[in-house]
Write a structure and sequence with these properties.
Radius of gyration: 22 Å
Helix content: over 70%
Mean pLDDT: 80
Number of strands: 0
CATH topology of the largest domain: Na+/H+ antiporter like fold
Strand content: under 5%
Shape: globular
Number of domains: 2
Structural class: mainly alpha
CATH architecture of the largest domain: Up-down Bundle
Order of helices and strands: HHHHHHHHHHHHHHHHHH
Length: 452
């Protein structure tokens, strides 16, 4: 009993020390930004990186008492430190921090593919098939309908033709289908969860990225006559889509085989290899017009399932990711446009609530047809609420496609993603804890944030 009390008192002391350190560093940076407001450039970016790493890590430790996932804590730390709250980090510095995003996304995709074990996919093929079908078509159709119903409350759609509203609604349906591999892998990394919910969620979320790419190209092609007067239906986009998908899978397979040989016969400086892939190879993929997320996903899958190097590969990714992911998610929080969220929050909240309801309904129907175990039927939807980079990317594509109203649509995407990314990880972690799939938090090593 005395040992237990002493242990609790020690934990409280450590938390208070961490809180004091966080407060003092924040105060120091706040004073520095007021005394030398013109400070910028490389020093500003380096200081911001260090601060977000420290603030995100300490915030995750503090909020862990309230069962808040580390990923959500990182985002909160970024929001508070960002340009719209404490203004410790300005807009220019936030943009500079985004240069690390390709590395984070490459690590997410590589780890996501390596987490997909062929034996688990075969065992859960029925679940994955029904989940993908309903979470794609059902969610797409009903959320598009909901967007059309709420369009009178969106200022940027006032006075536009009904055909444009219809086209934008279909595009919004694609946005709603997107999930967040980063949030899923982040929570799984923190909780070290293993079980049917963790496996089903991971497979569904990673598969949805491929489905969304196909849906986006299809919808953009079919809606072009609706949103652009005089435009005609073209099949060129389908040709480009096929080339992109086949090229990404082929290159990912080759990369996976090369990584397997490297891990088997060299097995040195994996950190350097991951850095080269994240920063260098990603640019090559963009130049070739291939999809980096899909390419790295396939590469990780090959390493895990066609060799004995999967666990070694995951361990190497976690070593680098434990730092990169903190900065990535905290930077995403700092990049959040808080004024946009204030302006559009009623419609954004309604769209998020509607999407969550449809997601739950689609999951329950798919789980029943797949004859899933009771825990998956009840809680399997929890990991499908989060949204992140894929949704924001689609918002940017829509903005380029519709210059006149695209800015408003992208702002709404940002607002809904902010809500879903704050709530989704909490729901997923709650489900894993409730079903007993989470391992003891003491087994997890902080600050492992995510495999995103």
């Amino acid at each position: 009993m005395s040992h237990t009390a002493t242990g609790e008192q020690s934990k409280i002391t450590v938390r208070l020390q961490q809180l004091f350190v966080l407060a003092m560093v924040s105060l120091l940076l706040w004073v520095a930004t007021r005394v030398v407001p013109e400070a910028g450039g490389g020093l500003s970016a380096v200081a911001a990186t260090g601060f977000l790493l420290l603030a995100g890590t300490l915030a995750s430790e503090q909020l862990e008492w309230f069962q808040v996932p580390h990923l959500t804590a990182y985002i909160i730390a970024g929001i508070v430190a960002g340009p719209y709250v404490l203004h410790l980090i300005d807009h220019k510095t936030v943009d500079q921090l985004s240069t690390a995003n390709p590395l984070a996304l490459a690590l997410i995709a590589l780890a996501g593919g390596a987490e997909l074990r062929l034996a688990d996919l075969r065992k859960g093929a029925r679940t994955l098939g029904w989940a993908t079908l309903f979470q794609s078509l059902f969610v797409f159709a009903l959320t598009a309908t909901l967007f059309a119903a709420l369009s009178p409350f969106l200022p940027f759609l006032h006075g536009v033709p009904w055909t444009l509203v219809a086209g934008v609604s279909l595009m919004w349906g694609v946005v709603a289908v997107t999930r967040s591999p980063s949030a899923t892998l982040g929570v799984l990394s923190q909780t070290r969860a293993q079980g049917p919910i963790a496996q089903a969620t991971l497979a569904t979320v990673m598969t949805s990225d491929v489905v969304v790419l196909i849906m986006l190209a299809t919808v953009l092609t079919l809606t072009k006559p609706l949103v652009e007067p005089g435009a005609t239906l073209s099949l060129h986009a389908f040709h480009e889509l096929g080339r992109e998908l086949l090229g990404s899978v082929s290159l990912g397979t080759t990369l996976g085989l090369l990584l397997t040989l490297y891990l088997r016969f060299v097995n040195r400086s994996l950190l350097l290899v991951l850095l080269l892939l994240g920063f260098g190879f990603t640019e090559v993929l963009h130049y070739l017009h291939f999809e980096p997320l899909l390419t790295f996903l396939v590469a990780g899958f090959i390493v895990q399932n066609l060799s004995q190097q999967g666990e070694k590969f995951l361990h190497g990714i976690e070593g680098l990711g434990s730092v990169v992911y903190v900065v990535f998610f905290a930077g995403a929080g700092a990049h959040l446009e808080v004024p946009i969220l204030r302006q559009l929050w009623p419609v954004a909240l309604a769209l998020c609530a509607g999407r969550a309801f449809v997601t739950i309904a689609a999951h329950r129907l798919g789980a029943r047809l797949a004859d899933d175990v009771p825990t998956v039927r009840r809680w399997g939807w929890s990991g499908l609420v989060s949204q992140a980079g894929v949704a924001l990317g689609i918002g940017a594509v829509i903005e380029r496609s519709l210059p006149s109203i695209g800015g408003g649509i992208r702002s709404l995407v940002v607002a809904t993603v902010a809500i879903n990314e704050m709530i989704g990880p909490v729901l997923f972690k709650l489900a894993l804890d409730k079903t007993g799939e989470s391992r003891s938090s003491d087994e997890a090593t902080a600050p492992v944030a995510a495999h995103e």
